[in-house]
Write a structure and sequence with these properties.
The longest helix has 14 residues, at 147-160. The chain contains 5 helices and 21 strands. Helices cover 15% and strands 37% of the residues. The protein is globular.
């Protein structure tokens, strides 16, 4: 997808909230985008008073935008990884996030803000790493790590440091050391590390039933018994392939908004949990929907896709190398027996560039 460079001015105060979605009302306007020729769209109405400068991306405009340092403004780049979208912030000059969790909630609002699943900060590395990644979810909570966000982080760093070609970084996260690598085809492969299977470390209060792990265990959720496997990829995941006695879960038929929060806040998960509902298409092809802790239903979850393959292997449903279909697109996941490490490969793409007054 071609990137769109845009400068967006939004207010964080409730008295001047602007809805980005209202721009859809101007689709009937006839305009064209010429390479390297900016066009200005100005819309004034009851719900929208904003100006957006849209231009085809080029090296000069991107570099100059990312170098802006005006005080009182947050300059950002919106990225997405198979639909999981993030507001990326250059925070390399400080270990203190440039915005608060409360501001992140407002920025992530899809009606009154920029719209995103989270805000990611690129920070200085610690303990010998190249960089540090922190993230605030759309509800203001802070997860340990985010797989799709890590791919976006790698592409963002390459853009900030003007790097080209195949690149690899070491990144400190709340889940430990993560190593993303930009491939020659511009996809990003991430060494996600070793999965955590010990029940108390996931964490879950469900009793271990296989080598200190919870594998295909029964979990009562609002009177319905689900078979679940619990995995941590630095953040907790509960994976289910269906209810007790069911054959093959049809994930498109789920009412995720109803069932997801019941898993997330279940008493068996003291740190809450991400939940993946999985349909087996073949021994190497899985389909999932996810309810993310702190973000709700999202189009993709990288750590969740990794956890799904691990659970599928533990339950004897799939092999160690799988394509995982998420609502936002596919990810390639490999759980290598040698070294016990998990690798995730997928895209990360720019959506637009923007500025917001703080």
């Amino acid at each position: 997808m071609a990137a769109i460079a845009a400068a967006i001015s939004l207010s964080l105060t409730s008295s001047t909230r602007r809805s980005l979605s209202s721009i859809n009302t101007f689709r009937s306007s006839s305009f064209s985008l010429q390479q390297n020729t900016p066009r200005l769209i100005t819309a004034v109405g009851n719900n929208l008073r904003s100006s957006m400068s849209i231009e085809a991306p080029d090296k000069t405009s991107q570099t100059s935008f990312l170098d802006r340092k005006e005080s009182g403004f947050l300059h950002f780049v919106k990225y997405h990884g198979v639909g999981n979208d993030f507001i990326m912030v250059d925070n390399r000059d400080s270990m203190e996030p440039r915005i608060t969790p409360e501001q992140a909630v407002k920025l992530c609002d899809r009606n009154f803000g920029i719209g995103a699943d989270g805000v990611i900060f690129a920070m200085p590395g610690i303990n010998g790493t190249d960089y540090t990644m922190r993230i605030f979810n759309s509800d203001g909570s802070e997860p340990e790590m985010c797989g799709n966000g890590m791919r976006c982080f790698a592409k963002f760093i390459a853009e900030l440091d003007k790097l080209r070609g195949k690149q690899s970084f070491t990144v400190h996260t709340g889940a430990g050391l993560i190593v993303p690598e930009i491939q020659d085809d511009e996809k990003v492969r991430v060494d996600m590390g070793e999965p955590i299977l010990k029940a108390s470390d996931v964490p879950t209060k469900l009793p271990a039933n296989k080598d200190l792990s919870v594998v295909k265990s029964e979990l009562d959720v609002d009177g319905v018994t689900w078979n679940v496997t619990c995995v941590s990829m630095g953040n907790p995941h509960c994976i289910t392939f269906g209810t007790k006695g069911s054959q093959n879960l049809q994930v498109d038929e789920l009412n995720l908004a109803e069932i997801g929060p019941k898993f997330e806040h279940h008493e068996m998960f003291p740190a809450r949990t991400n939940t993946e509902f999985v349909q087996v298409l073949s021994h190497s092809h899985l389909k999932m929907r996810v309810w993310e802790r702190g973000a709700g239903a999202t189009l993709a979850c990288g750590t969740g896709a990794c956890a799904v393959v691990i659970a599928a292997v533990l339950e004897g449903r799939a092999g160690r190398s799988c394509t995982v279909d998420l609502p936002g697109g596919p990810l390639e996941i490999e759980w290598r027996e040698e070294g016990n490490r998990v690798y995730m490969t997928g895209p990360a793409e720019v959506v637009f560039y923007g500025s917001v007054p703080l």
